[in-house]
Amino acid sequence: MKPSQISQQRWKFILLIFAAIIAIASLVYTNYLVRNLAHAERSKAEVWAMSTKNIMTMPDVDDEFITFIYAVRDSLNLPAIITDDKDDIIFWRNLDSTKTNIKPIHNDSVTKQLDYDPNYFQKQLAFMKKSHPPITLELENGQKWHVYYKDSWFLQQLRVFPYVQLSLIALFLIIAYTVFNSIRKSEQNLVWVGLTKEAAHQLGTPISSLMGWLELIRIKFDAEEDDTLNEMENDIKRLEIVADRFSKIGSTPVLTNHNLYEVIKNYVDYFRIRTSNKITFELTGDTHVEAKLNIPLFDWIIENLLKNGVNAIGTEGKITVNISENIAKEEIFIDISDTGKGISRSNFESVFQPGFTTRKRGWGLGLSLTKRMVRYHQGQIFVKESEIGKGTTFRIILKSNLKYEATQI
């Protein structure tokens, strides 16, 4: 892994830890607030229980004191239920009036139909028992009342608020990361496009000069059919193609219909004589399939994969290119296999990432550019299979330009 990649990984790790600290701090503080608010609500429930007990058990006292006790009792806004030792409900507070058949106080315009639902009481009591331990009141006659209550709406919302908040923050961060990452990649693409177009422009002049010098040599030495000069001309034409490739980066390529076998054969023949004779090449498969291609860019795809295979082989080996067609899906498979050192399964996806390389002097851009150019051709590329020490097979899938109609029997 290169230093730039290590630095990126370190920053991602630091940001992840920072986000975790914020999340933990938010949860801890919210839980602190919930505990304090829950304690305060229990105190209110205890006051309400005592005031209710006093109202129902106290002898005749001053009217003003009774009014005060009622005011204390009615100040509770928590849903609550009082039961005896047999779990029979004695009194309740702030339950749904449409289920208790009791018209709410301070509400003279109830539009909903009032009803009595015993199951509703039992469900509420069961829920309250699970929510908090009961408040037990001992009466003078030896009986015991049990007061059950549940959290207020505000406390219930406060319990889930941190999770909602963290979810929204996480969603915002994901969107922000996606947007900024897209902007960064767009800026990188603009830089690469600018560099490649400038390289194409700079190559134009020396290539034209080389063609002129080559013609002068042929005239001066009367060597129109010299094999060496013909190969030099082929290399100069290849430089023109490379410059043309660079000039097309960043633009939508024009795709035209071509015989796939012939296109690949032409490049393999060119590449073969410029590689060690200890590495053999074999082209097999369907010779009639057609696909829409941009020849300069498609040659670049084949070139990168063949060079990758040669580098993987090292000294002596074999590279096989096989073309097959899936008629049912109207797809063409191009399998490029080598007998090189192979790729570990964990790196099947990583090999296409910019900067990934196993070579000391490699830039790690070949397969990344190859994948992009395959996408230009509306296709896909992946590692079909690989075994350490035995070789690798890359598969390219393109849409076939030949249409087949189902035959009726």
TrEMBL record:
Substrates-to-products reaction catalysed: ATP + protein L-histidine = ADP + protein N-phospho-L-histidine
Recorded GO MF terms: phosphorelay sensor kinase activity
Gene3D superfamilies in UniProt: Histidine kinase-like ATPase, C-terminal domain
Coiled coil: none
EC number of the protein: 2.7.13.3
Residue ranges of the TM segments: 13-34, 160-180
Keyword annotations: Kinase, Membrane, Phosphoprotein, Transferase, Transmembrane, Transmembrane helix
Pfam families listed in its UniProt record: HATPase_c (PF02518)
Residue ranges of every copy of the Histidine kinase domain listed in the record: 198-402
InterPro entries assigned: HATPase_C_sf (IPR036890), HATPase_dom (IPR003594), His_kinase_dom (IPR005467), HisK_dim/P_dom (IPR003661), Sig_transdc_His_kin-like_C (IPR004358)
SMART domains the record matches: HATPase_c
Name recorded for this polypeptide: histidine kinase
Species annotation: Sphingobacterium puteale
